[in-house]
């Protein structure tokens, strides 16, 4: 990953060069476009390679900054008035806040035409209809991983909830997926968009269903899950995955498609989570997904052009070609040849033709303060699943929901998105 001076420092150096009239100090080359994103390791390398091949001879280059602390990094850059040209975020809630506060630039018409609805919604900001982000890739979340040959009759669930500043999200994924398959996309959307109380019976049942699936756990196993990364224990070649980690006598894991990179080459199979979640048959065709959306933070026209090229079919094909099967990006519509890797092929088939409905990750849609409270509540519930404790947690979440809703309603110049679910074809 190439490092470049901050935009403010580059501007200062250019001005100093021109004022000093240094020989040979002519018109400076255009600054590299800075892209901030969530991918590191092999994922980051594949994306950076895709960026490099976008060079069209204009002399414009791109610098990718990948970080696991994406929100904190972006906030600090915004506070320093030195934002990236393009940022790739997975939270519609955060993107909505940035749009409402005037930090995002509306996308050009050519980009919005390929935006997958409803995850790239048209927002009303200051009375104008605008689109501010476009999904680059998605990951299927309604999945269960297990060692081939393991019985599905009485699964022992792997759970690792630690994830730095966002610890708890593997648990929110559980609750979201259970609610989607028990109550359906309409109830799921109403809850995610704060139109439904956290104390609604359907929401409460999702929490108690999760506790029932996990079964009785010892204090030692609870602490191990709370302090172990969702990636599992570290091995000599990187994370080993929870199914391969010592101390986890488990047979099944509920986790997103991205986790396949820790199981590359292992004898691990994947199947839809609906088979385990005690929901009606009508909702088995619904799948939860997460998305990585590109948004423009600068006025540089080249930033718009970059997002347009990344979201194009050619951009997708180039990205896939640069990535190994274990980290190859997934899209909500079929693209390119049928994957040769069996795990990738299974997930791609479920995503593009097996699903009737795709619903965006609920917590990634919530206002940041409500999402963070949800993460914390999951950790507390995992430690103590008593009914009285759950009632207290749900009351607290309802209070945060009400406050966030009132704050958003006070800004009449803005209307957030209303829908989260759509067919795979958009």
UniProtKB/TrEMBL annotation:
Identification of the protein by name: Alpha-glucoside ABC transporter substrate-binding protein
Superkingdom assignment: Bacteria
Residues of the signal peptide: 1-28
Keywords: Signal
Biased composition (Basic and acidic residues): 409-418
Region described as Disordered: 404-426
Keyword Phosphoprotein among UniProt keywords: no
């Amino acid at each position: 990953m190439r490092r470049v001076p901050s935009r403010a420092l580059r501007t200062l150096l250019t001005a100093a060069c021109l004022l000093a009239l240094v020989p040979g100090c002519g018109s400076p080359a255009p600054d590299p476009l800075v892209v901030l994103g969530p991918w590191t390791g092999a994922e980051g390398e594949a994306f950076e390679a895709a960026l490099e091949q976008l060079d069209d001879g204009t002399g414009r280059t791109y610098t990718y900054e990948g970080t696991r602390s994406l929100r904190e990094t972006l906030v600090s850059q915004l506070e320093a008035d030195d934002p990236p040209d393009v940022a790739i975020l997975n939270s519609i809630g955060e993107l909505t806040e940035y749009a409402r506060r005037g930090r995002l630039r509306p996308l050009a018409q050519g980009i919005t035409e390929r935006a997958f609805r409803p995850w790239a919604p048209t927002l009303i900001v200051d009375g104008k209809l605008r689109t501010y982000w476009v999904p680059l890739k998605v990951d299927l979340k309604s999945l269960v991983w297990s060692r081939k040959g393991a019985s599905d009759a009485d699964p022992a669930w792997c759970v690792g909830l630690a994830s730095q500043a966002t610890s708890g999200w593997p648990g929110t994924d559980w609750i979201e997926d259970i609610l989607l398959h028990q109550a359906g996309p309409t109830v799921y959307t109403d809850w995610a968009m704060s139109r439904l109380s956290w104390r609604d019976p359907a929401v409460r049942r999702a929490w108690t269903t999760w506790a029932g699936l996990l079964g009785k756990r010892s204090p030692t196993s609870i602490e191990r899950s709370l302090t172990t990364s969702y990636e599992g224990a570290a091995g000599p070649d990187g994370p080993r995955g929870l199914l391969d980690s010592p101390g986890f006598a488990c047979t099944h894991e509920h986790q997103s498609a991205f986790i396949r990179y820790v199981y590359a080459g292992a004898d691990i199979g994947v199947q839809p989570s609906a088979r385990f979640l005690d929901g009606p048959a009508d909702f088995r065709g619904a799948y939860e997904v997460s998305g990585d959306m590109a948004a423009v933070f600068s006025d540089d026209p080249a930033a718009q052009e970059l997002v347009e090229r990344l979201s194009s079919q050619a951009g997708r094909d180039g990205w896939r070609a640069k990535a190994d099967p274990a980290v190859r990006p997934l899209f909500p519509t079929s693209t390119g040849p049928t994957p040769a890797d069996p795990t990738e092929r299974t997930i791609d088939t479920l995503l593009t033709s097996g699903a009737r409905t795709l619903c965006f990750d609920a917590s990634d849609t919530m206002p940041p303060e409500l999402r963070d409270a949800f993460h914390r509540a999951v950790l507390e519930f995992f430690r103590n699943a008593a009914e009285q404790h759950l009632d207290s947690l749900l009351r607290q979440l309802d209070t945060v929901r009400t406050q966030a809703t009132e704050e958003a309603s006070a800004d009449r110049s803005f209307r957030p998105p209303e829908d989260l679910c759509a067919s795979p074809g958009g």
